[in-house]
Each structure stands twice: as C-alpha cells, then as structure tokens.
Amino acid sequence: MIKPKQIITGILVVVAVLAVFGSIFILNETEQAIVTQFGKPVGEPRVKPGVHMKLPFIQKVQFFDKRYLAWDGHPNQVPTKDKKFIYVDTYARWQIINSLQFFIRLRDERSAKSRLDDILDGETRNAVAAHELLDIVRSSNRKPEIGEDFLEQLENLDSISVGRDKIEAMILKKVNERTADLGIRILDFRFRRVNYVEEVRNRVYDRMISERNRIAEQFKSEGQGEALKIRGNKELDLAEIQSSAVKEAQVIRGKADAVATSIYAGAYNKDARSRELYSFIKSMETLERSLDSLTSVVLTTDNELFKFLKKP
Q: Does the CA dihedral 253-259-262-268 come out positive or negative?
C-alpha cells in the first residue's frame, strides 16, 4: 500500500522536474525570443543561440524569426503623373531587428505583414503618382542597343530625370521611416513588374502594329522605287547598247560600201564601155528605189534619167 508521504514525495519530484524543464528553453541560430509574464514582456530580448532561463509556469516564451522575411505585394492599378494607368507588382524583404518592440506593436508576423501591406502599398501609390511612366520603367538615360539601322529614327526615347532605381530607393527610405517604431527594418524594395491595364495595353498593341505596318509600307515603297530605278537604268543601258550597235553597224556598212564602191570603180573604170555600164546600172538602181506604180515623175528632156525612159 502506498503511503501518503510517498505520494506527496512523488508529486514533489514531478513538480520539481516540470519546474526544471519549464525554466529553460533553447534558442537556435535562426530565432530570437522574448519572455512574457501574464502576457507582458519582461527583460531584454534573447537573441544569442543556446540555453536560456525563465520562471517556470508563470512565464512564457515568444519566438520570432531572425532571418530575412519575404513580402509580396498585390498588383494594383495606379495612375502615373502623366495619367497612364498601369498595374504595379512589387516585392520587399524585411527583418525583425527588435523583437521586444515588434511584440509590443505588432504581436506576430501576420499582423506585421498586414501592416506592411498598408505601408508599402501606400508609399508605392504615392511614388508612382508623383512620377511619369518613363521614370518608373527606365533606370538610366543610356542609349538603347539597336540592331537595325532603320530603328534609329524610331527609338528616340525621351530623357528621364529620376529613374526606377531612385524611385525604389525613395520608397525604401520612406517605408523605413514609418516602420522605425515597429521593431522591423525593410531591407530591400523592388518593382517586380510594371504593365499597362488591359484596355490601355490593347491600344498600345494596336499602335505598335500600325507603326510596324507603316515601317513595312515604307520598306515596300522604297523597294518599289529602287525596282523602278533599276528598270530605268536597264532600259537606258539597253538603249545605249542598241545605239552603239547601230552606230557600229553603220560605220561597218559605210566602210563596206566604200570598199565595194572602190572595187566597182576599179572594175568599171577600165574603159568607156565599162563606165557606161556602171552609169546605166546606178541609174537603174536609182529609178528602182525612187519609182513605183503610184509615183509620178516630172523630168526635163536633158535629165540623165530621161534618156532611159524615152522610147528608142
């Protein structure tokens, strides 16, 4: 039979063991913690990894992450300074730097993310509304790399005065000012994506298509002009070749006629009968070329041709 004294001793041993285990907690490298007593924090935050002590039963431990934490914004429709409606998608990285202040102001990470939604989204809207679209899209005034020569006249971008990097830095600075008393620090803030709203995006696509069609028509017009120029040069070269050929043929024919005439003259100039025969042949050739059935000729009686036409 168990005696009451043994029961009491057993209970005291169990309480002692629970007290020992309830008075220590282990903190690893990725955590930080605060000790609370009846819901209120006591002492300084515990940030060093290892074994830590607390009062058993009446004190509890609240653990918080020491690592960098992610915040993903929701895409919002925001108007820019130049009245362009765009969707802005952002993200940030943050860290709990003072777990005691964090617990007092926010209690847990869920509340912290909800508060960050308000702060980051608000500052993003303010920054986008205060700057033009080019400043949000571009980060510098560097000249774009253009692969086609014809695009040089089409891609003359306006210069920016601020740029995306500086806008992100301004948002980061203002957000840290607003979160300084929350025990957290925003490490980085970036625009993940910037895009037109669907209605404006469709108009932009239509304008891009019409611009590319205009370029295509310009190329087509230049090609047709070049084709006409080539055909004109071809016709000109062909006319010059034909003219040179005709000229050369006439020169050759003239030289041949001169040689033939010289041969005829040498053949017919041997005696008087040959000369008369030559004169007769030439006269007949002249008549043949000059007269037909519809031609009327008026000749004097002393004409050289008349003696061949009169009756013998």
A: negative
pLDDT score recorded for residue 50 = 87
**Residues 289, 294, 299, 305: is their CA dihedral positive or negative?**
positive
Closest to 64 measured CA to CA, from 99, 40, 114 = 99
Cα 56 from chain centroid?
Answer: 65
Question: Which is nearest to 187 in space by CA: 73, 91, 65, 64?
Answer: 91
pLDDT higher than 90, residue 157: no
Residue 16 has pLDDT above 60, yes or no: no
Mapped onto helix, strand or coil, the DSSP state of residue 85 is strand
Mind listing the pLDDT tens digit for each residue in 159-179? 888 889 999 999 999 999 999
**Sign of the Cα pseudo-torsion (44, 45, 47, 51, in order):** positive
Quote the CA–CA distance of 46 and 68 in Å, as a whole number: 18
d(CA 154, CA 159): 15
Calpha distance 191→225 (Å, rounded): 48
The answer to whether the beta carbons of residues 31 and 45 sit under 8 Å apart is: no
Question: What is the residue type of 305?
Answer: L
pTM value surpassing 0.70: no
CB atoms within 10 A of CB 46: 21
Averaged confidence pLDDT in the chain: 82
Query: In the β-sheet with 59-65, what is the strand arrangement from edge to edge?
Result: 40-46, 31-37, 59-65
